[in-house]
Structure formats: structure tokens, C-alpha cells
Amino acid sequence: MAETAAVRALESRLALMHGRRHCRLTGTGSCGLFLALSGLEDGRRRVVFPATICLAPVYAAIYAGLDPVFADVRMEDGAIDPASVSQLLENDSSIGAVVAAHMYGNPASLDELAVCCARFGARLIEDAAPAVGGRDGQGRLFGAGGDLALLSFGHTKILDCGGGGAVLTDDDDWIGRMDRIATGLPGRIEGYDVLAGQYYRLYYAIWAEARRDRAFFSLYEPFPRLFRSLHQYNARTVDVPAIETGLDGLDAECVRRHELAARYRERLGVSEDIAFLGAPGVGVPWRCTFLVPAGRRNALLDAVRAGGYDASSWYPPAYWFLSGVGYPRPRAEELAARVVNLWVTSQYRDRIDPLCDLVLNVLREGDRA
Q1: Phi, psi at residue 205, to the nearest 5°?
Q2: How far apart are CA 155 and CA 237, in angstroms?
Q3: CB atoms within 10 A of CB 84
């Protein structure tokens, strides 16, 4: 890992901020997870993820030579369901780690998961990459929990600094193993932006066809191999000054996101058509995330985008993209069919009211249809 004085100072700052003994910067958040999983010693070959999660952490397990398995999630916040995790651990002694992501910025139940993992001797990894700066209902900062925690400063994250991630732990031996593995990481490839463009073009082209016919999901199978260099490289290109500046304004950024999310909640209200994920004022909003009836979701997204606004329906269950792990997780499937994400970045401060009017009008039209 990078060894400049500026890097060491940032690592010390992040470790102190999260109450950890060790911090290491990584080229990406998922690369940090790769190092962590590669540094596991007990020989168990399976890792639990929430079924609702982006693909990068899942690829990290594959790169580490491990097999991902998927727990279901909770309908109220999209976070991993401890009961589903417990059932997996009870039935599969080959599971060595559980990755608990704060999906959509909502807190995973780390205390409950920690008890469950300790019972079965599995490592608990807190994935705070989607929610840097957030806090749980007790005011604890994300990144301070689990046996190890992950941060990310990459694209679409709370602090989008153009890339970079970090691992945080108190385990001297584990961090030592990660340091040794990290010495073999390549640098960021020269054609990174070109390859990233290819990734996104292929991803969305396949996705458009897979929405009509799930057989097209098989075309994602080569993605971990074809695009490994997008996920795994050393920290030498991390923009340390940008992360330092972002950390200076992190609390203010979280406050702004909560304010904008509260405005959405106020304007949209709660009805039979709209159910917000997560508790107001808890975590940190990655987006304003809510559920609508499945039969109207895609029409709503089309109308919002046609109106010139951003909207997304992520995340589909990760197991859709991998053969051999296609078991259903019913709540993750329902979330995938109903979820809507609207932006809470500062550019939307003056756009929320007309956007909410559009959303409500589309849903009313659906009621009349």
C-alpha cells in the first residue's frame, strides 16, 4: 500500500475518527474487501452478503477465491436480515465471514449480527462504503463496528473523491496479512477510463435485454474476469487531498442529505403507494429511497427521467448475475421490483418540489387507470 507521509497522515486520521487501531488506504473499496477476505486464515470458503448489494463486493470475494452466498434483506430498510444470516450459518459450517452493508445508507444491525457471528466463529465485516459519515440509531459512526470495516470514496459514494477506499480494524495479525498481500497489487491500468466505459456500456445493454428475458443474465458471467483491473489496484493513485477536504465537510454533507431526504418525505408523504426505506434522521441518505407498487415502478421511472430528473431502481439481487446461486430471496426480489431512488445531492435542493409533484401525479394517474 502507498507509503507517503500524506497517506500515513490520512490513515491515522481515519483510524482515530473511527476508533480503530489500524487503517490502510486501498485503490478501491472493493479492493479493501479483497485484501480482507484474502487475509482470512481458517480455510472456510464461503462469504455471506446481503442479496441487495452492488456487484463490486461480490467480485472481491470471487477474486479472493471464495464463494458468495446471499442472505435476504429487511423490507423496512433494505439492510441484511440477521435471521436469514443466522439460518445460513446454522446450516453451513463453511461460511467464514459475513459482510453487512449499510444499504441505501441505512444501518445494518451490527450488534445482532456480531452475536450471531461470534456464535459460529465467523468474521463480521462492516461494509460502510455506501454510507461513509452515517451513524446508527445510537449515534455510532459507521465504520467503527465489526471485526473489520470498509470505506469507499469512489463514484456515487457520499464522499465521491474519484476513487479510493480504506480498511479499518483492531486486528494486528489480520492487517499484517493484508499488508503482505497488498505488496503484489498492480497499479491502476493506463486505459482505466476506456475499460470503465466498456463496462458501463455492456452492463446496461445486457440489463436492457435481461429485463425482458432473464436468460441474458448469463452474459454477465465473464464480468469478474474481464473487468478485474477496474476493481483491484494499489492505492498510489488515491487523491489524498480530495479525501482530506471531503472529510472536513463530511458532517455538513450528511446534514444536507438528511435535510433533502426530509423534504422528499414531507412532500411525498406516506400512503398505500409510497413506503420509505429506513428511519428518518438515521444513517445517511445515499438517495431518497422508497417503494412504490411494482406494476407502476417502471412507468414512474420513465416519467421522472423524461422530465429531466435522475432516478434509479438499484439494486437488483446480486445472485441474478451469477450462475449456480439463483436461489430466491423473496424480500430482495420484492425490493428490486418496487424500489425508487431519487437524488439528494445539493443540485436538487431547488428541484425537489416539482419532482415530487411529478411523482405524485404519475402515481395518481396509476390509481385512476
Answers
A1: -65, -45
A2: 15
A3: 20
CA distances from 361 to 158, 215, 344, 366, 368 (A): 30, 35, 21, 9, 11
Fill in the DSSP letter of residue 144: S
Q: Are 11 and 23 in contact (CB under 8 A)?
A: yes
Residue 206 has pLDDT above 50, yes or no: yes
Phi, psi of 36 (to 5 degrees): -65, -45
- Measure the CA–CA gap between 26 and 143, rounded to whole angstroms: 15
Residues in contact with 112: Cβ distance below 8 Å, sequence separation at least 6, in sequence order = 82
- Residue-wise pLDDT for 279-324, tens only, equals 999 999 999 999 999 999 999 999 999 999 999 998 999 999 987 6
How many CA within 13 A on the CB side of residue 156?
A: 13
Distance CA 327, CA 314 (A): 19
How distant, in Å, are the alpha carbons of 65, 181, 258, 365 from that of 297?
37, 44, 24, 13
Q: What is the pLDDT of residue 344?
A: 98
Pairing of strands 95-101, 67-71: unpaired
Candidates 106, 47, 101; CA nearest to 75 is: 106
Evaluate whether 301 touches 313 at the Cβ level (below 8 Å).
yes
Secondary structure (DSSP) of 56-100: HHHHHHHHTT-EEEEE-B-TTT--B-HHHHHHHHHH-TTEEEEEE
> What length is written for the chain?
369
Buried/exposed 282-321: b ≥16 CB within 10 Å, e otherwise: bbbbbbbbbbbbeebbeebbebbeeeebebbbbbbbbbbb
In sequence order, the β-bridge partners of residue 183 are none
pTM (two decimals):
0.96
pLDDT at residue 365 in the model: 85
Ramachandran quadrant class, 84 (left: phi over 0; alpha: psi -120 to 50; beta: rest)? alpha
User: Is residue 91 over pLDDT 90?
Assistant: yes
The predicted structure's pLDDT at residue 367: 67
**Type of residue numbered 29:** G
Nearest to 142 by CA among 113, 97, 101: 101
